[in-house]
């Protein structure tokens, strides 16, 4: 349970960092690349396992972790593009609704139970995520939604969570969790560095030290959000469908509350209803 709470806390702190990016005019992509480097370094520093670092490419999970890292940075760019074209609420809903993919995977592949409490809780959770994600400005302004981009964000985010669960259960040893997480971020960092090098060659790169600081602030909680999530998945307290539901809904709740307390965000009636439904959904899923 403690690992789940720590993962929720780390993921919610990422929200705070992203909000500050806009305030201090941070180049998001550059900070994200630094963030992946920092996250990778954090994992390597914490690793105390028996597998020598040079033998990491020989591990059964290496190709999967590398693929996940590439997927991380691709989905991030899809999210940025979706935000620009369709608005923040669209990308937020697409990302959080993707929880249905690992939930269905857990029920179908791992034969996890789906009783009345869990089914009701999951259904309410999806509605809660949608209602809590609606923002005032975007409610008043009609959005011409490009369907392809939100669908790709939905599928990509769901695939990331599902792959984490599958690889953690089948290939990753307990002692290898730190280096497994580091490898994911390392692959994303390499792809990001290559993108920046392309910007340098094409004279489109502008260095600002504040982007490095921002990336460091983002990288540490980003690493631990994945590290603690993988640790939570290894625990038998909840099955994966229950854990992913609680994790995603709790992140939406905590992020919304942080927005109110720290950034004085104004909530709609729909947002408050979403928060209330989120609490109900967590209770129902936990009871299952």
Q: How do you describe this structure in short?
A:
This protein has 288 residues and is mainly alpha-helical.
Helix amount: over 70%
Rounded to the nearest angstrom, the radius of gyration is 19 Å
Largest sheet, strands/sense/barrel: none
N-to-C SSE string, H for helix and E for strand: HHHHHHHHHHHH
Structural class by secondary-structure content: mainly alpha
Rounded to the nearest angstrom, the distance between the terminal CA atoms is 15 Å
**What's the pLDDT, averaged over the residues?**
85
Which regions contain 5 or more consecutive residues with pLDDT less than 50? Answer: 138-145
Number of alpha- plus pi-helical segments: 12
Outline, from the CA principal axes? Answer: globular
Percent strand? under 5%
Q: How many β-strand runs?
A: 0
Q: Which SSEs are present, and which pair or pack?
A:
Elements: H1 2-23, H2 28-46, H3 62-86, H4 88-97, H5 100-109, H6 116-133, H7 136-140, H8 148-170, H9 177-201, H10 209-234, H11 240-263, H12 269-287
Helix pairs in contact: 1-10, 1-11, 2-9, 2-10, 3-4, 3-8, 3-9, 4-6, 4-8, 5-8, 5-11, 6-11, 6-12, 9-10, 11-12
What does this structure look like?
The structure is a single chain. With 288 residues, the protein is mainly alpha-helical. It contains twelve helices and no strands. It starts with a helix and ends with a helix.
């Amino acid at each position: 349970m403690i690992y789940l709470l720590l993962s929720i806390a780390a993921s919610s702190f990422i929200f705070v960092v992203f909000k500050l990016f806009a305030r201090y005019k941070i180049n998001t992509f550059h900070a994200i690349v630094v963030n992946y480097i920092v996250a990778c370094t954090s994992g390597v520093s914490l690793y105390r396992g028996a597998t020598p670092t040079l033998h990491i490419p020989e591990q059964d999970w290496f190709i999967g972790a590398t693929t996940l890292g590439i997927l991380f940075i691709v989905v991030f760019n899809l999210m940025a593009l979706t935000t620009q074209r369709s608005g923040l609420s669209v990308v937020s809903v697409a990302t959080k609704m993707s929880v249905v993919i690992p939930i269905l995977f857990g029920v179908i592949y791992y034969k996890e139970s789906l009783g009345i409490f869990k089914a009701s809780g999951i259904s309410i959770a999806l509605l809660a995520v949608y209602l809590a994600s609606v923002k005032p400005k975007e409610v008043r302004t009609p959005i011409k939604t490009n369907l392809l981009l939100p669908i790709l964000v939905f599928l990509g985010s769901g695939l990331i969570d599902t792959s984490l669960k599958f690889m953690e259960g089948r290939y990753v040893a307990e002692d290898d969790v730190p280096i497994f997480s580091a490898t994911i971020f390392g692959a994303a960092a390499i792809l990001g560095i290559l993108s920046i090098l392309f910007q340098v060659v094409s004279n489109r790169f502008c260095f600002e030290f504040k982007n490095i600081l921002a990336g460091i602030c983002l990288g540490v909680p980003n690493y631990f959000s994945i590290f603690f999530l993988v640790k939570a998945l290894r625990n038998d307290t909840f099955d994966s469908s229950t854990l992913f539901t609680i994790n995603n809904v709790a992140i939406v709740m905590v992020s919304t509350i942080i927005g109110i307390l720290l950034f004085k965000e104004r909530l709609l009636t729909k947002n408050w209803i979403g928060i209330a439904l989120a609490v109900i959904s967590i209770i129902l899923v936990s009871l299952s």
